[in-house]
Request: fold
Amino acid sequence: MHRIIPGRREAGMSLLEVLVAISLLGISFVTIFSGLSAALRATSRLDSFDRSNEFATRKLNELFLDPSLGADQRLFGTTPSGIDWEARTELVDQRPLPGAPTSAQLIRIHLRVSWRTHSGWQNLNLESLKLCIPSPPPGP
Reply:
């Protein structure tokens, strides 16, 4: 026969205490993992933007240094990683040069870079000006 002493509990936890503890632990895990998932999605989105931004900067520099690039041209392409790009040029200003048969041109380069994400297409637009001065004719 067991004797019950007033004011003294038996050692151990009740079923209700165990269920409450497991519920709190489950809610904590869900909160932590949802935050981690959101952070990973944001990191992926920023990584994709960073790669596209780096590509756009390199492509704009490449176009700027291209000696054959002139006014009213349209160039486009796709990288192996799936980044689409399109470049358009337009004449902004043209001035005659003293003693030169052709004039100097100021050309605006518009570059649009597009890439696919989980939420659709993202775009990045860059623009630059290029001064085209014709090379002098060969001397005697």
